[in-house]
Amino acid sequence: MTETIGGHGGDLALAALRGFGVNELFTLSGGHIFPLYDAARRAGLRILDVRHEQSAVFAAEAVAKLQRRPALAALTAGPGVTNGVSAVTTAQFNGSPVLVFGGRAPSWRWGAGSLQELDHVPLLAPVTKHAGTVLDTEDIVDAVYGAAMTAITGHKGPSFLDFPLEVLYGHPEGPVPLPRVFAPPVIEADPDDVARAAALLAGAERPAIIAGSDVYTGDAVGALRAAAENLRVPVYTNGMGRGSLPPEHELAFSKSRRAALSDADVVAVVGTALDFRLNFGDFGAATLVHIVDDPGQRATHIEPEVSPAGDLRAVLTALADYAGPRADHDDWIEQLREIEDSAREDDRLACEADGDLIRPSRVYGELRKVLDRDAVTIGDGGDFVSYAGRYLEPATPGCWLDPGPYGCLGTGMGYAMGARYTYPDRQICVLLGDGAAGFSLMDVESLVRQNLPVVIVVGNNGIWGLEKHPMRQLYGYDVAADLQPGLRYDDVVKGLGGAGETVAKAGDLSGALNRAFASGVPYLVNVLTDPADAYPRSSNLA
């Protein structure tokens, strides 16, 4: 028997998402989308509201990434939608299946100057997998279902729909049938491409694997481990791929990446783009293998030796099952392990650094002592978060959230909201640069009001470090790169109903962090760090 749904447009829109596991709605209130709230309240969906629309989209993206399913943000018409565009773009770059519903001025009065009248679709189309307007209430179920399927099919990404006022408030003439299939088709890679990739890795003298976010979002972590162990290949990770192999695993490496990529004869990049983070896929004389989850993700600026494109779990399982000839990689693994161990000792010393001014490395040295293995760490910033990537090593997959390759600041409080909603009992720790704090700190009020405790650690050096130091190197001076030194971001959080403290001495870090995690409220530890301490960069912008 086919299930049907009645009610107004809001009921139809949310009912179409029922089979995708969507149980929450992130939003900032607006009259154009009231029917969505009415439907959510009666259907038992949790409504979480924010102080800026981009935080709603970032919160939905965090849920989509962590739970590997569609998640929903609803934005009111006009500025509500445009305020969310940077966050939608971030989801597009990150391959996150976010659904964004927008209000829209009524079609029957279009062009007369209704409140917040704007055609959103041309703005959203370039930064989504699908963008459209639903013009009839009876079309809502099919449109929403199609947008959700598009978001999770192939390489994942955001979908956008807006609804004219009369469509969302309207009622269909009769019951509307609901869809019954909620799983996307599986993309199968060319078996010859997969076999060739396996043979290259197995036969190499000095192979390396770099695994990115799509390994986690494609539920391929176990298959990655099996492939690495069968082929005996060192694994480096980035993005949400971090933690796919725990730090103690014999094939998990992080500190020796530069040496590995300089000396490797075969490099397999799995589930991440060949962008500026990976020198655009140029690894010198090494043979390049690029394994992606969809043919559309194949690189066009460089030609890999082979690029299998399909379900990552299936591809990596095939690599794990490879039984052909292989070279002995033990000497190579041992060589990298020696480099790794030496670098870890250097890191240990940096994490214990003392002095009159706190170095970011010391902050992370203290955090390493208090973070649980399954803590979710969220990076929102420049230099301060770059240090986090160097000194924090997630032990559990799916526990690292950062803005990704688009580099949009302001993710922090939205990601924190989505992470706390997903994991009510885990540690949630936001690592915030003082520059990034200006984008989303007001949404601490949203966390306080909705009882969503998180720990926020601000690296407060009073500058835009990612710009100030390079500009000085280029020109011998800097402009537009200074912030107020010693600003009391903890007082801002206290004023919003949370708690916090400022730390000016390294010896006080441990106590402050322990108080923060024990507080049960949004708690900001405002760490005054050395503004002269610049992160040593090796990646290129272009």
Describe the structure.
β6 (130-133), α7 (140-152) and β7 form a beta-alpha-beta unit. α1 (9-15) packs across α2 and α3 (53-67) packs parallel to α5 (85-94). It is built from 22 helices and 18 strands. The model has no long low-confidence stretch (mean pLDDT 96). The radius of gyration is 24 Å and the shape is globular. Helix content is 38%, strand content 15%. The protein has 542 residues and is an alpha/beta fold. The protein starts with a strand and ends in a 14-residue tail after the last strand. It has helices spanning 9-15, 34-43, 53-67, 79-82, 85-94, 121-124, 140-152, 165-169, 191-203, 213-217, 221-231, 257-263, 312-320, 330-351, 360-370, 383-391, 412-422, 434-440, 444-449, 465-475, 489-495, 509-518, and strands spanning 4-5, 24-27, 46-49, 71-75, 98-104, 130-133, 159-164, 176-177, 207-211, 235-237, 266-270, 287-291, 376-380, 400-401, 428-433, 455-460, 499-503, 523-528.
